[in-house]
Task: structure prediction
Amino acid sequence: MGKAMYMTLRKASQADAPILYNLILQMATYEKDLDKVQTTMEQVEKTICNGAYAHAFLGEVEGKAVAYTVYYFAYSTYTGRPTLYLEDIYVQPEYRGHGFGKQIMTRLAQLAKEKGCRRFDWSCLEWNAPSIAFYQGLEAEQESGRLHFRLQGEALDKLASLEK
Result:
């Protein structure tokens, strides 16, 4: 059996933008979506690392960043409370199987409770069986009856340009 590994979680700072950006690119490569990444290191610094639109934690093993999570708060009119929305969770492949993903999810669940959230939501790619099994192991429920929609690019521009 290998040596036990321990991961520390810490809030990402503006100085961490290059590290976080690199981990985002690693996740996009894993998800076969690297060609869809439009963000830059500067945008990560301005929008995530300073908490303007989202927040991030870095997971470190022996001082090396091996995992990250990005999350933000939304609002549910049904519950009348905030919802913590998990945008990204990523653990480098060689560090999986040590409980680091569960450690991140536990910290986010604690944060959701601290902030008065009634829900903790996220989405998952349909083909990502290991992640689906992981989420089911946490007793997360797959939401049914809803479809995820997105406006982007020309469609977003077109709708935004309509007269009032």
